[in-house]
Specification:
Distance between the termini: 85 Å
Number of helices: 19
Shape: elongated
Strand order of the largest sheet: 32-33-34-31-25-35
Low-confidence stretches: none
Number of strands: 41
Mean pLDDT: 93
Strand content: 25-35%
Structural class: alpha+beta
Length: about 800
């Protein structure tokens, strides 16, 4: 508020201070200063950015810089004000050219003079207050150049009374200066204001204050899907029909008088409060404001210059993006007549300004160029955020150890009690291995592997992604998602599936069980659960909208304990005596509902280890009870908990892949030796056409193979490059065959093993290769300083090639 105005007989600043004190004393009111509403979303959901300590020179230790508020309001009053817009004329981007309102703020609020000798270029009365402020502060005001032919009113008269020259019907046609403005050229507008006519006057100055009127800040109203209308009097877009439960007040509505703004604010606040259930809707009496007549405005969208636009100096419209009037005229000539096309062609309205100062001028210039009215041309779409918001503010407290939530299974405390060492898999804390009596990781993993191969082990498998797929078209949906056929899968039967991306490369894998005619349960990799669900939803919502299918994540609904090993059947018989475990009655890749340890459960016969295995699924809150029951049932059999590292060794011995470790997004089923899983006679599926390209069958593509090291104890580094022995010597670069994807010591085989992707690998079985084990010590010309280990390419299935052990 201008301190020279009076409200109800008080200085405006004193009246404002009293109003703020009254609000602060009300316990039902929260006043947020240094806060901007940057986003207005559906159902009166408004986001605010509060800058808490950015203004402090030395903020307190640990103080919060910024905070984002999320507000769900019953009713909203928008009083976002209006912003001054510049005038578009030749050479309008020199240092020292400022908005008149900005100059006035420097002078009246901060007691700072932006220049010693000023010229004002305006088309409205409000800017004359800047001339008065400058004159009061001791600056010389050389002239007020007003584009309007007739300039009358209280404010222009006050300026004239101070001896300041006023030039009605004149415009600035050029500016001079290098590092800052030094002078302006002023000419009268000719008949019809089509171009300057008459003598040119050069006026020296070091400050040019410009004002082209005011544009109401309709951004939040538009974000809330409100409809705008163009108002000829204010030459601006104003709020028209709201979509949300809101009211508008103040200069946002086009009101120019402070008295009108205050009255509208009181009325809107009372009405919205009543609609929200507070008060009777009667507004308090509006205060009496002593203020000058705001006068009228005559729009001036593009100042005609002595030379045509584009043939002299540039007339900038968007000063942030350097978009000139000539750029907009060129866009129109190129056929960019839509305002959205013009915006993207010229970049007008991009950047942090988001069209706040440039938007109306750009729209008006485009309208004139295409021969349409401004309302017919329309305005661009205003989107959140209204002002830039830092990533830090959005993250809030989710930084450091809080940046990503740590997810724990229902059995987490049991693993802690057993001394498990955990690793992060996605967001989950999974037991990595269970050391005993000071065992190293290597010794613990060997013990766990042998327990599963020769006895019985237990694994917490709760973290695997689980997605319920329900609907009459569920089978057809799976048929399109997976590479193999699904329509004939029997009830309570399980099938392994492989998903491809549209490029024909492996996307994810897992098993899916048919629970009912129209109900399936899909499992995914632990880290890929969210990605797969998003993938399924994308196809259902954007491509296959005709399919009647619903997908629901149920990962957290089930706690899963896997019992694996030759003695797994004995443990299961004790846990579920009523369940028929005979392989004929309960075959591999089947599911049975049963009571396990007194708990209702689903039992799946699936094996990621190659051994007899039962995955017991119970309600999440029964997870600890199930784990305890399993451990008790297998105590005399020396049941051994095993972690993810052991699981990786066991599956690698069987040649089973882990998507994301043995694949990197460039492998096809053929590369992995999994042609058997691609349906030859089924219909279309995602990635089918890409997979059918000849390129996917090139002989030199990398195939998944096994590596058996020459040194039985020599575990290769994962990621190690694989080369032929004859390529070890010679200048760099040397041809690389591929790389190691998984590498472990197999206690069951008594030998180090590895999986690798090798060019033409399946045609190289039995071939000797070298794998890097150390880095070159600064050498750059040869591989002489690189250490290698010898290995032989073998089939990727190292253990139980016949698959007989899965039945015990």
């Amino acid at each position: 508020l201008d301190g020279r105005r009076t409200i109800d007989g008080q200085d405006a600043a004193d009246w404002l201070a009293a109003a703020l004190a009254e609000l602060a004393a009300n316990p039902d009111v929260r006043v947020l200063t240094r806060t901007t509403a940057f986003g207005y979303y559906d159902q009166n959901y408004v986001c605010l950015l509060e800058k808490r300590t950015d203004h402090l020179r030395r903020p307190p230790e640990g103080a919060v810089r910024q905070r984002v508020w999320h507000v769900r309001a019953r009713r909203v009053v928008l009083a976002t004000g209006a912003q001054e817009r510049p005038l578009v004329f030749v050479d309008n981007d020199r240092p020292g050219i400022m908005l008149a309102g900005a100059v006035r703020t420097y002078v009246d609020r901060f007691a700072a003079l932006p220049g010693a000798c000023a010229v004002l270029f305006v088309n409205n009365d409000a800017a004359y207050e800047t001339a008065i402020s400058l004159h009061r502060a001791g600056a010389r005001v050389a002239a007020v150049v007003d584009a309007r032919a007739a300039v009358t009113g209280a404010l222009p008269d006050q300026v004239r009374d101070r001896g300041i020259p006023v030039f009605p019907g004149h415009v600035v046609v050029a500016t001079h200066g290098r590092k800052r403005i030094r002078a302006v050229d002023v000419m009268p507008l000719g008949p019809g204001a089509e171009k300057p006519a008459g003598p040119k006057r050069t006026i020296e100055c070091d400050l040019l204050a410009v004002s082209g009127g005011y544009s109401p800040v309709v951004h939040l109203f538009s974000q809330a899907q409100g409809r705008l209308r163009f108002d000829e009097t204010t030459a601006a877009f104003l709020p028209d029909v709201p979509r949300e439960a809101l009211a508008c007040a103040g200069s946002l509505t086009g009101a120019a008088r402070l008295a009108d703004c205050l009255a509208q604010g009181l009325a809107a606040g009372a009405a919205m409060a009543a609609e929200a259930g507070f008060g009777d809707g009667a507004a308090p009496a509006a205060p009496v404001v002593d203020e000058p007549d705001p006068g009228t405005l005559e729009p001036l969208w593009l100042v005609p210059g002595v030379k045509p636009v584009g043939h002299g100096g540039k007339a900038f419209v968007d000063l942030q993006n350097d978009t000139s009037a000539a750029d907009i005229l060129l866009a129109a000539r190129e056929g960019m007549e839509s305002v959205e096309h013009m915006k993207r062609y010229t970049l007008a309205g991009f950047g942090t300004d988001q069209g706040k100062t440039s938007n109306i001028n750009a729209l008006a210039i485009l309208s004139g160029a295409v021969g349409r009215s401004i309302p017919e041309t329309g305005t661009t779409t205003f989107r959140p955020p209204y002002t830039p918001v830092t990533f830090g503010a959005m993250a809030g407290r989710d930084v450091g150890i809080l940046s990503d939530p740590a997810r724990e299974t229902a059995m987490h405390t049991r693993h802690q009690a057993l001394g498990a060492v955990f690793e992060d898999v996605g967001q989950w804390k999974r037991p990595w291995y269970y050391p005993r009596d000071g065992e190293t990781m290597e010794l613990a993993v060997r013990r766990e592997c042998l327990a599963v191969r020769h006895g019985v082990g237990v694994l917490d498998a709760s973290t695997l992604g689980k997605i319920d797929i329900v609907g009459p078209d569920a089978a057809e949906f799976l048929n399109r998602i997976y590479t193999n056929a699904w329509k004939k899968l029997g009830l309570n039967r399980i099938r392994y599936g492989l998903m491809l991306g549209e490029d024909g490369m492996v996307f994810d894998d897992g098993t899916t069980t048919r629970l009912a005619e129209d109900h399936y349960l899909m499992t995914t990799t632990t880290g890929g659960a969210a990605r797969v669900l998003d993938w399924l939803e994308e196809w259902l919502q954007t491509e296959w909208t005709d399919l009647k299918v619903h997908c629901t994540s149920v990962t957290e609904q089930w706690a899963v304990t896997a019992v694996a090993g030759p003695k797994a059947g004995q443990v299961m018989a004790r846990l579920a005596p009523d369940l028929d475990l005979d392989p004929d009655a309960f075959p591999f890749m089947a599911m049975r509902e049963a009571t396990v340890a007194g708990l209702p459960a689903r039992v799946y016969r699936i094996s990621f280890t190659g051994e007899l295995s039962y995955e017991i699924n119970v309600a999440w809150h029964h997870g600890r009870a199930l784990w305890d029951a399993v451990m008790a049932a297998g105590a005399d059999l020396d049941i051994t908990p095993y972690g993810t590292e052991t699981m990786h060794v066991l599956r690698a011995e069987k040649g089973f892949i882990i998507v994301g470790q043995d694949t990197d997004g460039t492998q096809t089923p053929h590369d992995l030796g999994m042609d058997w899983i691609v349906g030859k006679t089924k219909g279309d599926f995602i990635g089918r056409r890409s997979f059918a390209r000849p390129d996917t069958r090139r002989a030199d593509r990398k195939h998944l193979v096994g590596l058996l090291t020459d040194d039985p104890e020599g575990v290769l580094p994962e990621g190690a490059q694989v080369i032929l022995p004859e390529d070890r010597h010679g200048a760099l670069p040397r041809p690389m065959l591929g790389h190691v994807t998984s590498s472990y010591y197999s206690a069951a085989l008594g030998h180090a093993i590895a999986l690798a992707l090798v060019k033409g690998g399946r045609d190289r079985l039995g071939q000797a290769v070298l794998a890097t084990t150390g880095s070159a010590n600064g050498a750059g010309d040869s591989l002489d300083d690189v250490t290698f280990a010898g290995a032989r390419i073998v089939d990727p299935v190292f253990y139980d090639r016949e698959g007989s052990r899965k039945d015990g």
